[in-house]
Specification:
The protein is mostly helical. It contains 7 helices and no strands.
């Protein structure tokens, strides 16, 4: 079973760094991989947020989806500017795992969508905050490190908001399930 589809795992980070050394002027291959992974995550958060706006029953879930779209579009714009400056190519579409998650969620609507989406957002943001905290400290490129540290408060805010919305939907359902369950 997979833990979380939109994860910042080491395998995609290393794979991304292997695919792009020729296009990057940065000396920090971890920074290149971090930018690419963060951009990939932004694309997914935007796509899933748009899906939440369309499919959610709860006004809170719709509002959360709107916030994800807005915040991750702004983050995407900032990361694209940084990537242009650093001459790093970024992904332009969802990866295969993200497409699968999008498809799975698109098959739901109403309360089942709300629960599945918010549980996924809660798990994903926990993982993202943890990854940003650990990776940002090790980045060598000061511009990428600064961007990562500036993004952390927003990711933490998303985590708190996801927890609040998820709890309002059904805390016993959300927290009794294993967090590594693949849907």
């Amino acid at each position: 079973m997979t833990r979380t589809i939109l994860s910042f795992t080491l395998l995609p980070v290393f794979a991304a760094s292997l695919l792009t050394p020729a296009c990057a002027t940065m000396q920090d291959s971890q920074g290149v991989a971090f930018l690419q992974t963060a951009a990939q995550e932004n694309l997914a958060q935007i796509a899933l947020g748009q899906l939440a706006i369309q499919m959610a029953e709860s006004p809170q879930v719709k509002q959360f989806g709107e916030k994800m779209v807005q915040d991750h579009q702004m983050a995407n714009q900032a990361i694209r500017q940084l990537a242009t400056k650093e001459r790093v190519n970024l992904p332009k579409q969802l990866n295969e795992n993200q497409q699968v998650k999008h498809y799975e969620l698109s098959q739901l609507s109403g309360k089942p969508f709300d629960l599945a989406y918010m549980q996924y957002m809660l798990e994903d943001h926990k993982k993202d905050v943890n990854e940003f905290e650990h990776t940002a400290q090790r980045l060598q490129d000061e511009n990428v490190q600064r961007w990562a540290f500036n993004a952390l408060p927003i990711l933490r805010q998303h985590l708190v908001l996801a927890s609040t919305v998820a709890t309002s939907l059904g805390p016993t359902y959300l927290f009794s399930r294993e967090t590594h369950t693949h849907r």
